[in-house]
Amino acid sequence: MTQKTKVAIVGSGPAGLTAAIYSARANLSPVMIEGEISSTSDQPGGQLMLTTEIENFPGFINGIDGPELMGNFKAQAERFGTLIHSAKVSKVDFSTRPFRLWTTDQVGDLNDLDPAYETDSVIISTGARSLMLGVDREIELIGHGVSTCATCDGFFFRGKEIAVVGGGDSAMEEAIFLTKFATKVYVTVRRHELRASKIMADRAMANTKIEFIWESVVSELIGENSLEAIVLQNRATKETSKLLVTGLFVAIGHVPNTDIFQGQIDLDENNYIITHDGTYTSVEGVFACGDVQDHKYRQAITAAGSGCMAAIDTERWLEHQVTH
């Protein structure tokens, strides 16, 4: 049976849960379709569910674990009346109002099913996922030596030797930033040259703390409870070598979780949702917040801020629909 609502929030994490808190406090009775439990970043709570200690989120002097922080967000959203549905949205139709959403826990052919929800407005907060290396124990060691965010975790590696994987601008930015903390930063690159822009490549190569390891890939992670070393394989010779590092930063790119929105709203060349005037998308009544539309900052605090913006934009848009 189709459920009708004023506000449907697709996805959770800091952006979606903040949008839920603000929407619920505005008496909009939002429904959040939070995602499904998995090993990827589009699970309920987003990437912070795969993070251990967070020390840069304001208000927590001694830091807080990612899952605990997201649990607090969720409890606060529920306290104000957010209805949380543990499923993923599998199909959307933004071509007509009310907007229609189908979910993964519906049984049968989606083309034959009535939508799970009809909603006056939608807030998209499905986030983005970091591309990973695909080696054994990689996900298990996230927060225990493996990271995808130098800004988030660089401080923990003060005085250590660490490695960065990647050859693009993002990898160079991460490596340069990490030299503020680490004594040595190894950059492992699959090819014999960098994909990064010349200015970023020159800046990284001029840094005496950075050493490049060319034509190499990470084939193994060593360490029981935390990372102790990585094994590199040379792509040309197939020879392997061990690199004693306690930190590994994977910087090979991000992919926004926008597959179900293809053809429904405007996306940029990298498939991030295009927003304007705050959190408005190309479809009136559909808003987007967090990493699904932010490929620059990717921080929990900026995601939460944009979630607040999306809720306020949605509330004002709904009010305008009633008065006109």
UniProtKB/TrEMBL annotation:
Classification via InterPro entries: FAD/NAD-bd_sf, FAD/NAD-binding_dom, Ferredoxin-NADP_redctase_2, Pyr_nucl-diS_OxRdtase_2_AS, Thioredox_Rdtase
Gene Ontology BP annotations: removal of superoxide radicals
Keyword Cell inner membrane recorded: no
Coiled-coil zones: none
Name this polypeptide is given: Thioredoxin reductase
Catalytic activity from the UniProt record: [thioredoxin]-dithiol + NADP(+) = [thioredoxin]-disulfide + NADPH + H(+)
Enzyme class: oxidoreductase
Listed cofactors: FAD
Keyword Coiled coil: no
E.C. no: 1.8.1.9
Oligomer and partners: Homodimer.
Keywords linked to the UniProt accession: Disulfide bond, FAD, Flavoprotein, NADP, Oxidoreductase, Redox-active center
Native source organism of the sequence: Acidithrix ferrooxidans
One Gene Ontology cellular component annotation held by this UniProt entry: cytoplasm
Protein family per UniProt: Belongs to the class-II pyridine nucleotide-disulfide oxidoreductase family.
Superkingdom field: Bacteria
GO MF term (any one): thioredoxin-disulfide reductase (NADPH) activity
Xref: PANTHER family: THIOREDOXIN REDUCTASE 1-RELATED-RELATED
Cofactor, free-text remark: Binds 1 FAD per subunit.
